[in-house]
Amino acid sequence: MTTQIPDEVFFERGWFSVAAVDGTGLFDPDAHDLDPMTTSSACWRGYICGYAVSDGHLVVRDLILGSEDPPPLIGKIHPVREDDDARWRYEGLDIPVDFTGRLLIGDGDVDDRPYLNMGFQPAWMYSEVHELTFQAGTLVTAADRSAELAAVRAAGPATEPAQGESTKDWVSRTFSLSYDYSWPR
Fold this sequence. Notes:
Strands 1, 2, 3, 4, 5, 6, 7, 8, 9 and 10 form a ten-stranded mixed β-sheet that branches. By secondary structure, this protein is mainly beta.
């Protein structure tokens, strides 16, 4: 199994990886007649979103999509083929996202971080973590959660299946973007 390439969010001054999602309404390829295909073991979903918080609202700025055939336009934006024949990039989309819920976003490596080479990196693996809360795509609150996640990291969260947990369940959990996995309490 391989570490997955996360979606990203441009927030305040830079890019952060999406580490956990609790809510509904993020970008849905089906709503844009897109049929993503896996192009590498690092992107099983077949697409990667570049979101941004712009003027207090969540938007999709960029999208990388796996597709053998040229995908359709999104709005007036044409996809551009990347070096890999099956990867296409949309830039400058600015599609409003009607997300309601919470996102944990993180950036920065930590010293002595454990080796986890599958699924999505949990929030406690980042040195800087923010929790963003949205209502219908509008940013309601933003809180720095770096200290709380540092405490989780110091407590030694699980980096392998719990006693009695099946490997299949552990793998499924690491490939989720659940709060329970990303911020164990």
